[in-house]
Amino acid sequence: MEYIPEAGDIVISKAGHDTGRAHIVLANMGSMALIADGKRRLVSAPKSKNVKHLRKVGNALAQSIKDGTVTDKEIRAALKQINGGC
Predict the structure, then answer these.
(1) For 31-57, how does the pLDDT look when each residue is reduced to its tens digit (9 = 90+)?
(2) What angle do CA 80, 67, 41 make, to 5 degrees?
(3) Per-residue confidence at 3, pLDDT binned at 50, 70, 90?
(4) Model pLDDT, residue 85
(5) Distance CA 53, CA 73 (A)
(6) Is residue 4 part of a domain?
(7) Which of the 8 DSSP states describes residue 53?
(8) For labeling, which of 39, 43, 62, 84 is most exposed (least CB within 10 Å)?
(9) Share of the chain above pLDDT 90, in %
(10) Strand (E) or helix (H) holding 55
(11) 85 in a domain, yes or no?
(12) What is the CB neighbour count within 10 angstroms for residue 34?
Protein backbone atom coordinates (compact mmCIF):
# COMPACT_ATOMS: atom_id res chain seq x y z
CA MET A 1 0.00 0.00 0.00
CA GLU A 2 1.39 3.39 -1.03
CA TYR A 3 1.92 6.07 1.60
CA ILE A 4 -0.45 9.05 1.22
CA PRO A 5 0.99 12.08 3.03
CA GLU A 6 -1.16 14.40 5.12
CA ALA A 7 -0.38 17.87 6.42
CA GLY A 8 1.55 17.54 9.65
CA ASP A 9 3.18 14.18 8.94
CA ILE A 10 6.80 13.98 10.01
CA VAL A 11 8.71 12.19 7.26
CA ILE A 12 12.26 11.02 6.58
CA SER A 13 13.64 11.44 3.08
CA LYS A 14 14.66 8.10 1.52
CA ALA A 15 16.31 9.54 -1.60
CA GLY A 16 18.00 12.67 -2.88
CA HIS A 17 20.49 15.13 -1.40
CA ASP A 18 18.41 15.31 1.78
CA THR A 19 18.45 11.53 2.44
CA GLY A 20 17.98 10.73 6.10
CA ARG A 21 16.74 14.20 7.10
CA ALA A 22 13.37 14.81 8.72
CA HIS A 23 10.78 17.19 7.29
CA ILE A 24 7.14 18.04 7.90
CA VAL A 25 4.56 17.68 5.14
CA LEU A 26 2.84 20.99 4.43
CA ALA A 27 0.57 19.79 1.62
CA ASN A 28 -0.22 16.78 -0.54
CA MET A 29 -0.28 17.24 -4.31
CA GLY A 30 -1.11 13.73 -5.54
CA SER A 31 2.16 11.90 -6.12
CA MET A 32 4.16 14.86 -4.74
CA ALA A 33 4.27 16.46 -1.30
CA LEU A 34 5.42 19.91 -0.20
CA ILE A 35 7.87 19.51 2.69
CA ALA A 36 9.80 21.91 4.93
CA ASP A 37 12.36 21.54 7.71
CA GLY A 38 12.37 25.14 8.95
CA LYS A 39 16.08 25.58 8.23
CA ARG A 40 17.15 24.58 4.71
CA ARG A 41 13.60 24.46 3.38
CA LEU A 42 11.37 27.16 4.81
CA VAL A 43 7.60 27.37 4.98
CA SER A 44 7.79 30.21 2.45
CA ALA A 45 9.75 28.03 -0.02
CA PRO A 46 8.92 24.35 0.57
CA LYS A 47 10.46 21.49 -1.42
CA SER A 48 8.33 19.38 -3.73
CA LYS A 49 9.22 15.72 -3.17
CA ASN A 50 7.90 12.49 -4.67
CA VAL A 51 5.95 10.59 -1.99
CA LYS A 52 7.68 7.31 -2.84
CA HIS A 53 10.88 8.93 -1.48
CA LEU A 54 9.30 9.65 1.92
CA ARG A 55 8.83 7.48 5.03
CA LYS A 56 6.39 8.58 7.74
CA VAL A 57 7.74 8.54 11.31
CA GLY A 58 5.22 10.68 13.19
CA ASN A 59 2.85 13.60 13.21
CA ALA A 60 3.04 17.15 14.59
CA LEU A 61 1.62 20.63 14.04
CA ALA A 62 -1.23 19.39 11.85
CA GLN A 63 -3.71 22.02 13.06
CA SER A 64 -1.23 24.91 12.68
CA ILE A 65 -0.43 23.81 9.13
CA LYS A 66 -4.12 23.52 8.20
CA ASP A 67 -4.77 26.96 9.72
CA GLY A 68 -1.78 28.42 7.83
CA THR A 69 -0.15 29.70 11.03
CA VAL A 70 2.84 27.34 11.28
CA THR A 71 6.27 28.98 11.55
CA ASP A 72 9.75 27.77 10.71
CA LYS A 73 10.65 27.99 14.41
CA GLU A 74 7.79 25.62 15.33
CA ILE A 75 8.89 23.18 12.62
CA ARG A 76 12.52 23.23 13.82
CA ALA A 77 11.37 22.56 17.40
CA ALA A 78 9.15 19.64 16.29
CA LEU A 79 11.98 18.07 14.27
CA LYS A 80 14.78 18.71 16.77
CA GLN A 81 14.86 15.24 18.34
CA ILE A 82 14.50 13.41 15.04
CA ASN A 83 17.31 15.35 13.33
CA GLY A 84 19.62 14.91 16.31
CA GLY A 85 19.37 18.51 17.49
CA CYS A 86 20.30 20.06 14.12
Answers:
(1) 999 999 999 999 999 999 999 999 999
(2) 40
(3) confident
(4) 54
(5) 25
(6) no
(7) G
(8) 84
(9) 83
(10) strand 54-59
(11) no
(12) 20
